[in-house]
Design goal:
Number of strands: 0
Shape: elongated
Structural class: mainly alpha
Helix content: 55-70%
Order of helices and strands: HHHH
Radius of gyration: 45 Å
Number of helices: 4
Length: 155
């Protein structure tokens, strides 16, 4: 019997048992943490091989940007506040002004519509155009028929 070997094995076994006990005791005393672990416990993440290293700004560049921003704020604060202008109505925003001829045409259309609603049949007039003659109507009809026939043959 090798007594020295047995003693070494028992010491190894004892140290393994002590480590297991320390781990179990340590778990029992620490309450379960919620949230992000403290900085001391966090391990720095290894840089990702496919992701390039982040570029850092030099102190000189940071100082230039800070000076530019301070100048920008100084310029802003130096100007007096603009006077408030009366709000523009939402309808007129984005629309072109209506011409006099268009306003007249629209007025005639609305008068005709209201007259029709009230029961009076107002005669329909085309504002600004002469009525088409029968010959012109026939000519236009023939042209349109020719155009449609041409489109049908292409398709």
């Amino acid at each position: 019997m090798d007594i020295q070997g047995m003693v070494a094995q028992l010491r190894q076994e004892a140290s393994r048992i002590e480590h297991a006990i320390a781990a179990l005791v340590g778990l029992g005393f620490q309450p379960a943490r919620r949230g992000r672990p403290p900085k001391a416990q966090q391990a720095a993440p290894a840089p990702h091989p496919s992701r390039p290293k982040r570029r850092r700004m030099s102190p000189a560049a940071r100082a230039r940007i800070a000076a530019a921003k301070k100048a920008w704020w100084a310029k802003r604060k130096a100007k007096p506040e603009p006077k408030k202008v009366a709000p523009v109505s939402k309808k007129s925003a984005g629309r072109k002004p209506m011409s006099a001829a268009m306003r007249k045409k629209l007025s005639a259309m609305m008068k005709a519509r209201w007259a029709q609603r009230k029961g009076k049949a107002a005669p329909k007039k085309r504002a600004g155009r002469k009525p088409m003659s029968a010959a012109a109507r026939e000519k236009l009809s023939a042209m349109m028929k020719a155009r449609w026939a041409e489109k049908k043959t292409k398709a």
